Amino acid sequence: MTLQNTKNLRKQVAPFEKSTTKESVWQLINTVVPFITLWYLAYLSLSVSYWLALVPIVFAAGFLTRIFIIFHDCTHHSFFKDRRANRIVGTAMGVLTIFPFDQWGHEHSVHHATSGNLDKRGTGDIWTLTVDEYLAAPLRLRLAYRFYRNPFVMFGLGPIYVFLLKNRFNRKGAKKKERMNTYLTNALIAALVGLLCWAVGWQSFLLVQGSIFLLSGSVGIWLFYVQHTFEDSYFEEDKDWEYVKAAVEGSSFYKLPKLMQFLTGNIGFHHVHHLSPRVPNYKLEKAHNNTPPLQNVPTISLATSLKSLRFRLWDEKNKNFVSFKEVKALVEKRVSVQVKPEL
Asked: Distance between CA atoms of 109 and 270, rounded to whole angstroms?
């Protein structure tokens, strides 16, 4: 992709960067109201059976994922034109999704600025090692990496660690404004949890909210994982790294069924979002459909995305993700080439 093409692509997307207050308010209504309604239905269903309650719980988890996308847009200041409105609504949505607005906004901005940059990994992204780094690592680090990359750990324990624990503490070096926002978010979460436990009982609260949290948390981490972990993704050293290439080649177009696209706030158009974070989620599809070059980006479906579960390491030589099994075969091949038969 040439420099001129890069400029043209960003210019073509620019018209979609303006939020519309009417659409933003409507999305708040058609997201938060159904979530609260489904939560209450799940609570009422517990008097019959937890299995019956699972029906509204599953849909409530979907709407909580959609709430997170609103929170996510607010941290980019793309949901409303007014920065204060983004901050107020974003903090409120952060209470529902248990994410502090300023802390996550900082980490996510770093993620956007460094996604696919091999020399700037470590903030706001999935822990990814290259093949050579993995082979050179000590045994304890390799074991830790394999543990981290285990699907049960990443999509099961991951939400518990990141959302419930990590999000409660300020990062090192955080400024006062960010620290105070984290304290405020924690206090509001505690107040909301206390109110709901008083209103419905702690057992019912844990059954309903705990189930919604685990489901939506797993979906959230899966979306983040699969949209950057596909076979021919984009990773380069800093000297060769390009922002636009990282956006359109290192972020997938996750083509989902319409209902799932709705519940995930169009975040499947991740290439558009990384190209221009100022495009609100409700305009991502329009930007994609009206920008022809964006229709020729890495595309994955619900079925093909499952292949990403076996991708573990980035192969710098072949520019693709590989599994641990493939790395083992690669090492054996290297050894066989190096060992020459005696004459």
From this structure: 15
